[in-house]
Amino acid sequence: MSTSGGSRPVRLGPRSLAALLLVSAVGAVAIGWPLFAPPSSRIASHAQDAPWLFAGLLVLLVAVLAAAISESGLGPKAVAMLGVLAATGAALRPVGAGTAGIEPMFFLMVLSGRVLGPGFGFTLGSLTMFASALLTGGVGPWLPFQMLAMGWFTMGAGLLPWPERLRGRAELALLSVYGFLAAFAYGTVVDLAGWPLLSGTASNIAFDPDAGPAANLARFLAYSLATAMGWNLGRALCTVVLTLVLGPALLRALRRATRRAAFETAATFDGPGT
In DSSP terms, which residues pair with 266 in a beta bridge? Predict the structure, then answer.
């Protein structure tokens, strides 16, 4: 018997790639509609209901995507590693209770996505956020958007260039820059998803269904600066510090575990006498 194969447990096949593109497209619309919907649109007139409707739709689509990715080669060893990393990430999230954006789970997602690839990364990010919500009681209409945003966050690390060649300080620098920028992007996406729920408040930073896209963009930027900038900056800095300090050891451990598990190793049986 001989073996051959790559080093990543989940590779995106045509079906899972199509599902990922569909979920991402619907997710982008579900999150960004407040900045594009004109005042005369029906969706603007249902600003309080839209996040709930989109949340329900995203739950179904993320489930479809998870099923499609699992069919593309998520074997028992990959499932075991997925479970361990998701449980670790879920346990890390309450550390600091999000105080000043101190959320150590983000650096783990960056390093895991880098080593294990975009398909595994999206699955891991979504599952970790779901598990952590159950652990912390953070279940609500915002959860599907958090799952999608974390899936994108972890998948993006798997899409960074030179995964097989770049090592050492250069790789840590790349991951730190990505972690810093992506942590801000994650916070912005989650803030935008929940922002329309403020439309009933008498505030000049809340979503106004009667205002145009430009006015609402200005309102959202003011909202983000006033309420989320400190959290996003803390999350980004925490991710960078942990990546630089713990990154080398964790990257080696993840790569060693991947090699020993021989993910995606295809077994071929030779004929008699060979």
Answer: 4
238 confidence band (pLDDT: 50, 70, 90):
very high
- Amino acid, res. 47: A
Is 235 in contact with 183 (CB distance < 8 Å)?
A: yes
**For residue 74, what are the contacts with CB-CB under 8 A and spacing of at least 6?**
9, 10, 82, 120, 123
pLDDT digits (tens, 9 = 90+) for 144-157: 888 889 999 999 99
Query: Do 213 and 202 touch, CB atoms closer than 8 A?
Result: no
pTM here?
A: 0.82
Condensed to tens digits (0 to 9), the pLDDT of residues 100-125 reads: 668 899 999 999 999 998 888 888 99
Nearest CA-CA partner of 190 in 218, 231, 226, 240 = 231
Closest listed residue to residue 14, CA positions, set 73, 89, 86: 73
DSSP result, 126-177? HHHHHHHHHHHT--STTHHHHHHHHHHHHHHHHTSS-TTT--HHHHHHHHHH
**Residue 56 and residue 202: Cα distance in Å, rounded?**
28
What percent of the chain is modeled with pLDDT above 70? Answer: 73
Which of 131, 43, 136 is closest to 94 using CA atoms? 136
Query: With 80 as the cut, is the pLDDT of residue 249 above it?
Result: yes
Element counts in the chain: helices (H) and strands (E): 10, 2
Q: Where do we find the tokens 């028992």?
A: 76
